[in-house]
Amino acid sequence: MDLGLSERVAITTASSKGLGKAIAMELAREGAKVVISSRDEARLRHAAHEISTATGNPVVPVVADVTRAEDVERLVAETLRRFGRLDILVTNAGGPPPGGFEAHDDAAWEAAFRLTLLSVTRLIRAALPAMKARRWGRIINVTGTSARQPVDDLVLSNAYRAAVVNLAKTLSRSLAPYNITVNNVAAGTILTDRVQELAESRARAQGIEVEQALAQFTREIPLGRLGRPEEFAAVVVFLASERAGYITGVTLPVDGGVIRASW
């Protein structure tokens, strides 16, 4: 299947590792020119070299912290300077720290807001002029299943990821006349550093080994295994493609069947 991504230009944030890196790899494999970002310059440059070598397509690393407005603006400006266009935006960031309601003070809530919701708002706002000018765009927000089915001890994620979902639904209607689609892909338990951190947090809370915590995660998944980053990335890349032009405003779980809701 030709996804029509050859020569498209994409930004994928938080992409020096984990889901962001897997998404960048799949976009480049489909022929897109990809700009990746991260706060860690050494890791970011290594990821760019790895993806470019594996795919033969140019990958541009831009050091950026998505919680900083000036970094977001510079990331988009550098993309436009290099390629003259921006077709695909994949918003992604590490999740806020785990913990129940009483574990987080105002500073934690404000930091989670900047990371999880405000970063998405700023990235989309910066990208829209270029997409509107060409009357074509794909915006995909990487979120989590907690947006649809709250997870115990992830109160910050539960609150702000749900806000991202509702933001995307709102924008999907207002941007439809410009042929810009806006969708979310909700990650279940996929074997990344983030899942490892959550397993370590659960292990500490329960006084068990990390391997036991990971086994608990697996028992909660109907398919009986953790997801692979490339499986998640394939869904994101499809939504970024020409083939997905009639899909907008949806939140698609990639979770092995964890979410119980039927809609």
Blueprint (SSEs and pairs):
Blueprint: E1 9-12, H1 18-29, E2 33-38, H2 41-55, E3 59-63, H3 69-83, E4 88-91, H4 106-134, E5 137-144, H5 155-175, E6 180-187, H6 193-206, H7 210-219, H8 229-239, E7 251-254
Parallel strand pairs: 1-2, 1-4, 2-3, 4-5, 5-6, 6-7
Task: Describe, in plain words, how this protein is organized in 3D.
The chain contains 8 helices and 7 strands. With 263 residues, it is an alpha/beta fold. The protein folds into 2 domains: 9-189 and 228-254, Rossmann fold; 191-226, no CATH class. It has a 7-stranded parallel β-sheet, with helices on both faces. Helix 1 runs parallel beside helix 2 and helix 4 (106-134) runs parallel beside helix 5 (155-175). It is globular, with a radius of gyration of 18 Å. The mean pLDDT is 95.
How many helices?
Answer: 8
Mind telling me the CATH class of the largest domain? Alpha Beta
SSE ordering = EHEHEHEHEHEHHHE
In which order are the strands of the major sheet placed? Answer: 3-2-1-4-5-6-7
Low-confidence stretches: none
Number of domains: 2
Mean pLDDT value: 95
CATH architecture of the largest domain: 3-Layer(aba) Sandwich
Task: Give me the Rg, rounded.
Answer: 18 Å
From the N-terminal CA to the C-terminal CA, the straight-line distance is 27 Å
Structural class: alpha/beta
Q: Fill in the CATH topology of the largest domain.
A: Rossmann fold
Shape, per Cα inertia axes: globular
By CATH's scheme, which homologous superfamily of the largest domain applies?
NAD(P)-binding Rossmann-like Domain
The number of distinct β-strands equals 7
Strand content: 5-15%
Largest sheet report: 7 strands, parallel
**Approximately how much helix is present in the residues?**
40-55%
